[in-house]
Every structure is written in structure tokens, then in C-alpha cells.
Amino acid sequence: YRTPLRDDTWYMHRCAGCGSLYLDPRPDQVSLPRAYEVYYTHNPDDEQASTSGLAGVLWRLIHGYLNQRFALSRQPAAASGAWLFRLMVPWRMKLDYYGRHLYPNDFPQRGRLLDVGCGNGSFLARAVEMGWQVNGLDPDPVAVAVCARQNLHVVQGTLRDAPAGWAGQFDVVTMSHSIEHVTDPGLELKRVFGLLRPGGVLWLACPNPDSLGSRVYARAWRGLHPPYHLVIPSARQLSRLLLDAGFVDPVPLRRGAHARWMMRESAANARHAGGISMQARALLAPLIRVMADVAASVVPGGAEETVIMARRPAQP
User: Fold this and answer.
1) What is the dihedral of CA 54, 55, 57, 62, to 10 degrees?
2) Which of 145, 228, 299, 307 falls 20 to 30 Å from 37 in CA-CA distance?
3) pLDDT tens digit string along 151-168?
4) Of the candidates 102, 71, 244, which has an alpha carbon nearest to the alpha carbon of residue 171?
């Protein structure tokens, strides 16, 4: 498996009961932070849109949809994108994921949002555009410094280190590919529950261990990502953990078109692994990608990612 670190052997196991994946043995709390010294969140994302040619036309349409769907003010924009992407279901779902499904109609007052594992702050900056008051939390000091340069309010640390004043203060908490980086996902969800106001919403995304890519690429699947990913809960286990933490109404969401990068990286891992079987799987990446995108547009559990929303009850 390719990592930014030196080649090493990692063992990821699947729980026979719930289907979740877990790394064992795993790095200890002293050595694990060293792996993040070369992590991808150390640079801000470049979201500059092309303004010329066919790419420019596409970006105008995308901006038109995002402006209407999430109350953004992206320019240049074509208003026709608002209805066009509603007809193009897999790509509409892709854009809805970009805004983490936080539609203004559902959150007319916006309010306070916390992004746990905010990395370089790309979503925090997006949420500010959407009208939210934002805070971030991330244990990586380099990523936190990237956020500070963007004037984003981010605390260095984990949920265990969240300021006491945050308890019960957030209307929305988002966790994009952070739950798989912790040793005890259930405990983390209980901590998130305590940060939400009554009626507050959690949005969460993580790799789906039951996905087509996971089954086809096995040890080469990019979603494994050792040693960074410690526990990858299955969708059914994640729902159980949410309910155990006190959340209600966990709703899995369809992901739509999304698998290009995951299949490209998984194919590269397969080529790196060597062997006839892995080389054949690498060649199948374009076909597997199409199949994954179709599956993700039809059923929530068909995506390479599990995406789920749940809420804290309005009344205790």
C-alpha cells in the first residue's frame, strides 16, 4: 500500500459481526502524530474556477446551481445551472455533498457550525460563504496554522480538548473523514452530541467498507489508508453508534458521482502491489468507477463513502 511514509506492512481486519474495519496493531499515541507531518491538509485548496472554453461554461453552470442551492454568490454564474443540475441526478448529488447538504431552507437562520477535523479549512471557508458562524477543530498544528492564515477560528486538538464553552452551542457539527482517524468512534460521537444544541444536526462522512471499491481492490483500496485510518465503521455500525450516543433519525444519504479519485488511487495502489490479479484490477478502474457512481446514485450504501445525518433530540 502506497503512503507518504516508507513502505511498511499494516494489518486491517474486518469485524465478523458488524462489518467494520480496524487496524491492528496500530501506531501508539507517540508515533502516530509523526505520520501527519507530511499530510495533505498542510496546503490550502485551490478552488479557482476556469473562466474560458468549455470548462468555463461548466463552471458557470456549477456556480449557478451552488448559488441557488446554498445561497452562495459565486461568479461567474449561469442561473440555468440551477435547473440543469436538478435533471442530472448523479452530478446534483455531487454538488449537494460539496455543501454538506446544509440547505438554507432547512437552516434559514444558519447559526453556529463546528467542523471536526477541519484540516486546511476548505469547508470552513465555504461555510462562511454560506452564512454560517464557524469554528474548527483539528489536532494537526500545521493544518491549524493554514486555517489561521485564512482568519478562520480553529482550535488545535481533538474533541477531548474542546473548550468547555462549546457545550451545547452548535447548530451543526460536520465530520468529513475524521471519525476513521480515532480509536473510539462511539466515544467521539457522544462528545459531539454534547456540543450540539437541542435539535442540532450532525453531518458525517467516512469511507464505506462495504463499497464496490473495497470489495474489488481489497488491500489496495484507497479507503484503507493505513496507518491514518484506525477504525472504519460500517454504515450499520455507525447508525448503532449514533443511536447509542443519543442521536435520533440517522439518515444515510446518496453520494452520486464521486468515485473518480478513489478508483484512480486504488488502481495506483494495485499496480504498486504487483501481481497479475492486482494488475488486472488496476486496468478495470474506469469500469469500476462507472459502476460505483451508478450504485451511489441509486442507494446510499452503494457509494465509496458513507454519508449520514442525524440530530440531537429537540427535547431531552
Assistant:
1) 150
2) 307
3) 999 999 999 999 999 999
4) 102
